[in-house]
């Protein structure tokens, strides 16, 4: 069987609600909306973490953070992703074009070839993402006749906000820009978010200032004007990345391979733009503006009917679903789970095998959340409170139970996402039984009995030992 090509587009920091196909009225995403028009749109796709390193580790391993062990950027290299090894064994050439070097160190082994923008000579201020996209396009032009898996990581709309020349000139003509830009740039904390374009390849001073300010951003109070201006900059960045996506997809169309390519578009996480009084992603919070992301999946060979999947899905489902739709069987011991049945049901295909989906988790070292049906619980993460490595292993093996302390119970946040999508009303005290129920799902997750490793339940002792070793090899200890 000839398997389709795969284009995995991951846009850093892109919120779902800034895209027209997810209801944004601002017309920032003409190209992405056009892809969505004949694709499957996942209404409730959740990242497995709220920032880049663990989120990508989950995307490429189909494991949650507690299983792959990546919680920060101080990480050792991940061993080759079994999912990408599977693609290789089915004849795919695995190419990646990324915008920073850390991908090479921790994901490089999963690809046949990875190019990083940081290896190229570019003007940091105005060319970065353009050059990166151009590299991906040139690669496609040269290699589209071989079966490919192309991973393209695009950095807009991640801060700092930098714009290619044409956009910058357009912005300068807008009243909002004229009235705010100079004052914004002179702001001690916010200014480095929007540096002046300069000709340096690597403007070290600007980057240092930005790094300094990014540590303080979550803590400072901003007035409405500043917040509006940041949202404006963010929205222009969405337009930039939408045009980049359009250029790549048009290349596939021009080369005549779009009809034989699965296109998956998602982000690694979103961005809080003072929705809950703070800015940025990462340590800040686990509200939906940070952890709910777009996921749009275009599948060739099926009819052009668009479909919408309403159920909660996780980024750990993305690769298994793509692999399944590409007609490749996943070995039973692989932990990731395909949601193909839900994709087919959303298109109204008869006979779709639509098994109920498990709860969806999101985890960092400090916080963990679970979404089950309409409810979402956020709580401090217990994994940080083990006294020793031995205790954590005993807990992982189910030999001891971790108890939630009084203060942690008080820190519970429970939201009804259907009635309160903005997550403004904490129901933890009012609906105690629901909170307890979701808390038990988090205990299951920590005890390794969570749905993601359900497949391991019926394994023989030898197989179980092997998987445990693999998990430990992935950094779980
Ligand atoms: Zn990111």
Examine the secondary-structure arrangement and name the CATH architecture of the largest domain. 3-Layer(aba) Sandwich
Q: In the residues, how many domains can be counted?
A: 2
CATH class placement of the largest domain = Alpha Beta
Residue-averaged pLDDT, rounded? 85
Write the CATH fold name of the largest domain.
Answer: Alkaline Phosphatase, subunit A
List the ligand species.
Answer: zinc ion
Number of separate strands? 15
CATH superfamily of the largest domain: Alkaline Phosphatase, subunit A
The chain-level structural class is alpha/beta
Spans of at least 5 consecutive residues with low confidence: 450-459, 470-477
Number of helices: 17
Overall helicity: 25-40%
Main beta-sheet strand count, sense and barrel state: 9 strands, mixed
**Percentage of residues in strands:** 15-25%
How widely separated are the two ends? 40 Å
Structural features, described:
This protein has 477 residues and is an alpha/beta fold. The protein is built from 17 helices and 15 strands. The protein has two domains: 276 residues, Alkaline Phosphatase, subunit A; 90 residues, Arylsulfatase, C-terminal domain. A hairpin with a 3-residue loop joins β12 and β13. It is globular, with a radius of gyration of 22 Å. The C terminus is likely disordered. Zinc ion binds next to loops.
